[in-house]
Amino acid sequence: MKKILITGSIAYDHLMTFDGKMKDFFLKGAEHFSLSFQTNIEELFFGGCAGNIAYTCHLLGDKPYIVSVVGNDFDKYKKWLEENKISCDYIYVDKNKNTASAYMLTDKMNSQLTMFSVGAMQDISSLSNFDFNKLPDIDYAIISPGFPYSMLYFAQSCIEKKIPYLVDPGQSLTALTHDALISLIDSSDGFIVNEYEGELIEKKMAMPLSRIAKRTSFLIRTVGCKGAEIYHEGKIKKVPAVSGLDIKDVTGAGDAFRSGFIHGFVGGESLERACQIGHTAASFVVEQKGTQTHKFTLESFTQRLKKHYGS
What we know:
Elements: E1 3-7, E2 11-18, E3 42-47, H1 49-59, E4 63-70, H2 75-83, E5 91-93, E6 100-107, E7 112-117, E8 140-143, H3 148-160, E9 165-167, H4 178-186, E10 190-194, H5 195-205, H6 209-212, E11 219-222, E12 228-232, E13 235-239, H7 253-266, H8 271-285, H9 298-309
Parallel strand pairs: 1-4, 1-8, 2-6, 4-5, 8-9, 9-10, 10-11
Antiparallel strand pairs: 2-3, 6-7, 11-12, 12-13
């Protein structure tokens, strides 16, 4: 059992669906727009990158420790985490603000539009409440999307404590400056982005992913149903995703991939095998609605892993 430190967001997810293609309503070349998508379904789930990653880490048999800031409406979420034996000891409650919320609209092509209200996460003064000396001996950390200043603070804390960490800028990428990204990447053990984020960071840093990858040990780019690409030692290795799934909702698949990848990588597996484990974890998520509604046993997980990727 590996001890995994997870920093980032804990949020209430408001999931909505649009029975059409959002891209059909974005006019090419338009500088200004005002769009409204009608949906008759809205469901509330426990979410946030840190919460989602921790949930699947626990299913895989690891011990996750979430470091985050939540609001005065955290009680329901806290009960859920505790029922799933996930520690809340390092989650700070700001009684003057609400917990962060994500509003996600998914169309029939599985394209997503997300709005994120940071809520209590914006209170950077709460960082003084985190004492890394009180943490148990951590094997690995992931700096997942959060308030930019907090991400830099946690990364620096990991450096000081000599904890190897994986950077996942995710939804925070638009708020991170060029210098902040350089700082996060250069001292990291690895870097992970999805397909769209990969294009955005290339534009933001004015360099291709192949060059960005040279600033850290490895870079992983997930590309949806096509799988993932590993940038390592000047080469690119493609790892296909699990196929033949009955996809219900793709929300949270990336977070589950990260849980599986970390589980494999910290357990001594190769980058390729770690990605296969990540894809297998993600495959259980997309078969359910919501980001923490999936379940599996280690036996059923191993069976699916071997079925699609071999022993």
